[in-house]
Amino acid sequence: MLTDCLVAAIQAIYVFHKIVVSISRPSSDSFSHHMSIFYSLASDALDFFTSYHVYIYSRSWPTISCFVMLLQFRMLLVSLAETIRKHVRHQRIVKHINDSYPEASKEDLLRQDSCTICWETMEKARRLPCGHIFHELCLRRWLQQDSSCAVCRTALSLHLSQIA
Ligand SMILES: [Zn+2]
Ligand SMILES: [Zn+2]
C-alpha cells in the first residue's frame, strides 16, 4: 500500500516535471534525460520492493509467490539493463558530438540560420564534417536514430551498433 502510493507519487512528479520542462526549458535535454533515468530506476526499485513485500506476507501459496517473485526479479533485471543501455548510449552520443563536431562559426550561422531538423532559427549550432549545421539538441536526438547527416545522408563516424 505504502509502496503503491510512492510509485504513484513518483509517476505524478515525473509527469509534472516533464510538462514543466517541455514548457519552460525545451533545451534542457540532459536534465530531462537524467530525470527519466532516475525515474525508471526508482520505479523499478519500488516495483520490486512491492512484489518482495507481497512475497514475504503471502505464505499461503509459497510456490506460486516464489515463481511470481522470480518473474518479477527477471523483469527488474531486464528493465535495469535497458535503463543502463539507454544512459550509456546517451552519454556516448553527447561525448561524440563534443569530440567530433565543433561549434558552428558566425559565418556558418549566417549561411544557414534555421535548423533542418526542427526548422527553428539557430543562435548556436554544431557543424558536421559535411558542413551542415544543426542545434546540438536536435543533433543528439537525430543521432539516437540515425548515424548519417539529416540533410545529405553523409555517413558519420558514430557506430550505433557498438553503442547498442
Ligand atoms: Zn533544431
Ligand atoms: Zn550533411
List keywords for this structure.
single chain, mainly alpha, Herpes Virus-1, two-stranded antiparallel ribbon, 2% strand
Account of the protein in words:
- With 164 residues, the chain is mainly alpha-helical.
- It folds into two domains: 2-100, no CATH class; 106-163, Zinc/RING finger domain, C3HC4 (zinc finger) (Herpes Virus-1, 2-Layer Sandwich), CATH 3.30.40.
- It contains six helices and two strands.
- The chain has helices spanning 2-24, 29-57, 62-100, 106-111, 136-145, 160-163; strands at 126-127, 133-134.
- The chain has a two-stranded antiparallel ribbon.
- The chain binds zinc ion (2 copies).
Explain briefly what this protein structure is.
The protein is built from six helices and two strands, in the order ααααββαα. It is an all-alpha fold and 164 residues long.
Binned strand content? under 5%
Task: Tell me the domain tally.
Answer: 2
* Order of strands, widest sheet: 1-2
Please tally the helical runs, counting DSSP H or I stretches of 4 or more residues: 6
Low-confidence stretches: none
The succession of helices and strands, N to C, reads HHHHEEHH
**What is the helix fraction of residues, given as a range?**
55-70%
Largest sheet: 2 strands, antiparallel
* Class computed from helices, strands and strand pairing: mainly alpha
Could you say which small molecules are bound to this protein? zinc ion
Cα Rg? 21 Å
Distance between the termini: 37 Å
Q: How many strand units?
A: 2
Task: Please tell me what the overall shape is.
Answer: elongated
Mean pLDDT: 83
InterPro entries: Znf_RING (IPR001841), Znf_RING/FYVE/PHD (IPR013083)
GO molecular function: ubiquitin protein ligase activity; zinc ion binding
Protein name: RING-type domain-containing protein
GO biological process, one term: ubiquitin-dependent protein catabolic process
